[in-house]
Structures are given as structure tokens and as C-alpha cells.
Design brief:
Distance between the termini: 42 Å
Bound molecules: zinc ion
Number of domains: 1
Strand content: 15-25%
Order of helices and strands: HEEEEHEHEHHHEEEEEHHEH
Radius of gyration: 21 Å
Strand order of the largest sheet: 4-1-2-3-5-6-7
Structural class: alpha/beta
CATH architecture: 4-Layer Sandwich
Length: 280
């Protein structure tokens, strides 16, 4: 045995005995839930055409998410537009709250919107695209069917359009044909088609080193009971596609032994580490 090999075996013995710390590894994938607003509804009947929720009040969360990966940062969803938040002192059957910007929350981690390499939304309804223009400098990853919906002539005439109009000229990664999209090429962060709520609605599968798999489910289910009852809101784009996507997302959760995060269900969000802590 030469001296180098002897030295290496001595090091190995030390390491095995727990006398050495291992070399620093690349920063791991980490998931953060950001406060991007909330709802307080007098009546949640809009979430089922069958009457199960008639007259039942409900609170809905409206988070955004940051996924940090050694190869870049992804922001998923952009919350309620500040312009749509219910003014202080006013009451409304649907109270909408939005108090913190994404930028000020990112700042707590030493980040700015300009540092975010990738931006994507579950879908383009107003409560998911409020601050989308802030990320027009990121690479926008989008389902082709959703982008088509967002920039068609009839949609351009809506107030909503203004909240994300700047994405039109963003560097864009289009996902065609309902394919899965592996953001970093290693299977850790995947955008998965779950069409039906809108034309190009998607959910996010994140595989974390310690916490395991997490499925962030967009508006697949608005209320906890929506899942049990398989209710499809009347204003969904397609009931058939929504029901098929419910099956698909539930299978995704099962197959990956994943934690399911229904974005509008406050208990699901409260169960995550409170920002600026994240899930590793
Ligand atoms: Zn929503």
C-alpha cells in the first residue's frame, strides 16, 4: 500500500467514525409558500352546481410558491391583483385581501424578482396572475392552450389582461400537446397538464430531498370538500376534462406518495412551514 492510499484509508476511517464532516453538497431543492392574498366568502355556492355549498361561507387561501433549485429559481402563480383587493373599511360578499408583494417576501431571502429565472402559473384567472408583469424578465413556462386563451382578441378586452400583458414579450417556453415539462431536467420540478378548470390549467410536482414529493394542485379543487364530492364549478372550461384531471392528479399523488397542497384550502397552506421557512 503506498502512502497516498494509506492516507486515503485513514481519512475514510475517520469519516466512518464520524470524526469528519462531509464535503459541502450543492444547495438542495426547497419549496416556499408566499402570501399572495386570501378570500373571505359569504357563500361558496359557485364551487358546485349541485347545491352542496349553497349558503355556506368559506375562507380561501391564495398563495404563490417559490421553488429554489441549484440551477435556478421558479415562481409559481402571482396572486390576487392589488387593484382588486377590497378597500379597507368596505364590506363585500366576497372579501379579497392582498397585503404583501412578492418582491418584499423574496427580499427576506435576499432575492429580487430580477433573480427569478423561471415563472409559471397554474392558470390565468385573476387570482393567480395579479403580479405576473413583475416576472416579464423571467423565462415564462406556459401550456400552449393557456397562452392561446390569454392572448386571444376577446381576452385582450378584459381587465384581467392588464395584469399579465407584459408576458406577451417575455422569453417563453411553450409546452405543447399536454406534455409534462421537466423544468430543470432532473425530474425534481415538473409541470403537469391538468386541463379543465381552464384550457391549459396545470399542477406542479416537486420532489424534495427530505420532505419527498409535493403536488401543488392549482384550482383542481377549490374547497377541501370539492375533492371528496368531485364537484366541478359551473364556470370551469370543461367538466369532462376536469373530472379526468381529478383522476390524473389523484393518481399522481398516489404514485409519488406525495403531499397534496390544494392552493385555496387554508389548512393545506397552514400545514406548510411559515415563510421565510421552507420545505426541504
Ligand atoms: Zn383560483
Amino acid at each position: 500500500m503506498n502512502r497516498v492510499v494509506a492516507g486515503l484509508s485513514a481519512l475514510a476511517a475517520l469519516a466512518a467514525a464520524g470524526c469528519m464532516t462531509t464535503a459541502p453538497t450543492a444547495p438542495a431543492v426547497k419549496l416556499y409558500a408566499l402570501d399572495c392574498g386570501s378570500f373571505d366568502m359569504q357563500n361558496t355556492q359557485m364551487f358546485s352546481p349541485n347545491g352542496e355549498f349553497n349558503g355556506k361561507p368559506g375562507k380561501l387561501s391564495d398563495p404563490c410558491f417559490l421553488i429554489r433549485h441549484p440551477k435556478g429559481d421558479l415562481v409559481w402563480d402571482a396572486g390576487i391583483p392589488f387593484a382588486m383587493a377590497t378597500p379597507a373599511g368596505r364590506t363585500s360578499p366576497i372579501m379579497m385581501y392582498r397585503s404583501k408583494t412578492i418582491a418584499e417576501q423574496l427580499e427576506q431571502l435576499g432575492l429580487a424578482p430580477a433573480d427569478i429565472e423561471y415563472f409559471s402559473v397554474s392558470h390565468s384567472h385573476y387570482d393567480h396572475i395579479g403580479a405576473a408583469n413583475v416576472f416579464a424578465g423571467s423565462t415564462w413556462i406556459v401550456d400552449a392552450a393557456e397562452r392561446d386563451l390569454m392572448f386571444r382578441e376577446s381576452t385582450r378586452k378584459t381587465t384581467n389582461f392588464g395584469y399579465y400583458a407584459q408576458l406577451e414579450t417575455a422569453k417563453t417556453q411553450l409546452i405543447e400537446g399536454g406534455a409534462d415539462y421537466d423544468v430543470f431536467g432532473d425530474g425534481s420540478v415538473t409541470l403537469i397538464a391538468a386541463h379543465g378548470h381552464t384550457q391549459g390549467h396545470r399542477v406542479l410536482l416537486v420532489k424534495l430531498p427530505d420532505a419527498g414529493a409535493v403536488v401543488i394542485a392549482g384550482d383542481m379543487w377549490h374547497l377541501a370538500d370539492s375533492q371528496r364530492l368531485r364537484t366541478v364549478p359551473a364556470n370551469n372550461f370543461s367538466k369532462e376534462e376536469t373530472l379526468a384531471s381529478m383522476d390524473k392528479v389523484e393518481a399522481l399523488v398516489r404514485d409519488n406518495k406525495a403531499r397534496l397542497v390544494r392552493q385555496h384550502v387554508p389548512e393545506d397552506i397552514a400545514a406548510l412551514p411559515a415563510f421565510p421557512a421552507g420545505l426541504e
